[in-house]
Every structure is written in C-alpha cells, then in structure tokens.
Amino acid sequence: MRTFAEIGAAVVGTGFIGAVHVEALRRLGVQVHGVVGSSRERAAARAQEIGLPPAYDTFQAMLDDPRVEVVHITSPNHLHHEHAKAALHAGKHVVCEKPLAMTPAESADLLQVAERSGRVHATNFNIRFYPVLQHVHGMVREGALGDVRLVSGHYLQDWLLLDTDWNWRLEPELGGDLRAVSDIGSHWMDLTTFLTGKKIIAVMADLATFIKQRMQPSGPVETFATGRGVKTVPREISTEDCATILLRYQDGTRGALTVSQISAGRKNSLVFEIDGSTSAAAWNSEQPDELWIGHRGQANEVLQRDPALLNAEGRRASSLPGGHVEGFADTFRALYAAVYRAVAVGNPLEGYPTFADGHDEMLVCDAVARSHREQRWVEVERAVRAPAG
Ligand SMILES: NC(=O)c1ccc[n+]([C@@H]2O[C@H](COP(=O)([O-])OP(=O)(O)OC[C@H]3O[C@@H](n4cnc5c(N)ncnc54)[C@H](O)[C@@H]3O)[C@@H](O)[C@H]2O)c1
User: Fold this and answer.
1) How far is CA 251 from CA 112, 145, 149, in A?
2) What is this structure's pTM?
3) Residue with the nearest Cα to atom 5 of ligand 1?
4) Which of 316, 272, 343 is nearest to 130 (CA)?
5) Whose CA is nearest to atom 4 of ligand 1?
C-alpha cells in the first residue's frame, strides 16, 4: 500500500472549512499541492495570510494537474454538484462537504457518477469521527445499550442571532431552500443514523424564520465573521432560523431534534442522547472528550476519552493520549485517515461516509421541507434517481 506522503490533493474553497481540510491533510502527510478560490487573487491573498499552499489560476488548472489525485470540495453549497462532478470526470477521488448538493436529484446524479467512476467518494460528515462517538458506534453495535428506543437532542448556534449577521447560507440560490436544517441539522441526523445503525424513515417538521429581514453587507462576509460598520442593504429572508423535528427511525425508534442558529450563547452545541432498553449514552460537542453513560441499577459513568479505555473504533480515531483534549479539527484528520486508506489502495472501502450517505441526508432534508410545507408526517422517499443522461 502506498503511504499518504505519496498521495497528492487539492482543496477547492479557502474559507473557514477549506483551511481546516488543508491542515488535517498536512497532519497526515498528504501532499496538498494547491487551493482554488473564487478568484486567483483572493485565493492567493488568503493562502499567504494563513499559510495555505499556492493558489491555482483556475479550477480547471487544478483538475489538469496530474499530481492531484484527490479533490476536496469546500466551496459554497450551490457549487458542490458542478465541482464534484467535474473532479470525478477528471478521474479524481473526491471528498465533498455537506450538504452534498442543492437537491436530491443533484445528489442522486453525483452518487451515480461516483459509483460508475470507481473512484473513492466521501461526504464530509466529520462529526462521526470524534473518538468517543466512534466508541459509541461500537457500543451500540455490540448491544451495550440494549435495543435503541429514543434519540433526542439539539444542534444550536448563535452566530445568526442578529439581523445584522450575514452569510451566503442565507441566500437560497447559494445555500439551498433549507438553511439551519441542511447546514447543521444534517450533521445531527447523519450522526444519529450512524450511531444507531438505523435510517430515518419519516419526519414531522416545524420550521420558523424569526428574522424575516436582514441587513446584507455590500461586500462578501466570511463564515462566523462578526464585523460591523459596513454598508448594508435590507434583504427578505425565506430560509429557517430554527426547526423542531419529530423523527421515526427504522425498527420503531423515535427521535426529537431541535435545530437553531439563533440561540444566544450556544456557539456550536450538538447534543444527543440515545436511550436503549438497558443503558443510555449522551454527548455534548462543547465537551467533546466526555461521554455520559446512563444506567438504571448502578451508578452512571462519565468516560473520558483515553485510547487505553476506548474500544478499537474509538482508539483508531484518537491521536492524542487521554487528558489532551481532541476537538473539531481532529475529527477531520481521523476522517481523512479512513478515506485516504481507500485512496492508497485505489478504490472505495468501508469506514467513512460516502456520497451514498450524503445523498441519503439530502432525502431526509427534502422530507423535512415537505413535512413543513404540507404540515404533516411525511416518509423519506428513497427512490429518487439521477436524471437521465
Ligand atoms: N463539515 C463541517 O463541519 C463544515 C463546517 C463549515 C462549513 N461546511 C461546509 O463547507 C462549505 C463551505 O463553508 P464555509 O463555512 O467554509 O464557507 P466560507 O464562506 O467561509 O468559504 C467558502 C469558500 O468558497 C470559495 N468560493 C466561492 N466561490 C468559489 C468558486 N467559484 N470556486 C472556488 N471557490 C469558491 C470562497 O472564496 C470561500 O473561500 C459549505 O458547503 C458548508 O456547508 C462544513
């Protein structure tokens, strides 16, 4: 098998998450040959500012570079389909950010192209790769919680609380018709599907847009930026600030999720609890190294991440000894370690989220939107196919 140092990559998008991709790849020893931004000048300036590899002149110039075997797509959502498809057609392996595309038809198309290509394809559901969550995956599979009955929790943020907060995600033509649900709710729903091994089969969703008009700066704004004092224009907002969703998973498991980007003080709080017939497991992303395990007939436990105490799955995702907290950026390293093992052998393997998972999440989000529109329970339609041709 080739070493990671023999594999070349490039990253499309130089914003918040593009930089995280580059750093994780560098930690693994992958050769990141360059980045692509919205323009060469902006990408070059950003590359210099934060120490990214050089900027390609164009997206096509990156595709034409024979050293690049793997392309990471971290551009805004509306470009994922075009960028990922072009990269697959150019013979590259592709890691694409979530949401995989703008519509289920687009994601079905990408899945079909990816599967026909024989290339490695991954959707960037990095949250699965917190070490204690890999541990939970193993616990559930081995029956340590008994039969999973109830999954509850939230994903709350506050960075869009004010009407002066702005980001491309607020514009449906750039981010999609759903916002909070597809941006962060998708992580929660993918994660709980992964942990329980059960797909979401039906949803009952209530979406709300509290801030119906926002002040849009005249120039571009980076994700999570909080700058004020720029010139603005009022814009009507149609995408949801928050959502409450009831979920039915396979085998009768029930779920309840709250999603919000307007929850003061919650910077990035993903919380879940899985209640089984014998025990429970709960986790909060703001204390990522701690796993709560609940019992009825004995004292509850708090497992602090320590490779020596985790099962094989948890150990594989850990890179630091216990007590040295691993966080958000480390999950990218653990995810890419799994993806690049497949790249090293040259074809897809198991052990990481693929375009099939990205497409499935698009179908669940589509059901959420329909449920809200029609004000009723709706089933997730898993028959959506790629458009012909
Ligand atoms: N997995 C995660 O936890 C996570 C976290 C944040 C964002 N994301 C996803 O990553 C993507 C980017 O989000 P972000 O927060 O980094 O946004 P951002 O606005 O910070 O960055 C977007 C980048 O895309 C670049 N871009 C715009 N048009 C382009 C084009 N035509 N060609 C190449 N690059 C172009 C911009 O220059 C910018 O560098 C989104 O799809 C988002 O959902 C995932």
Assistant:
1) 28, 15, 9
2) 0.96
3) 17
4) 316
5) 17
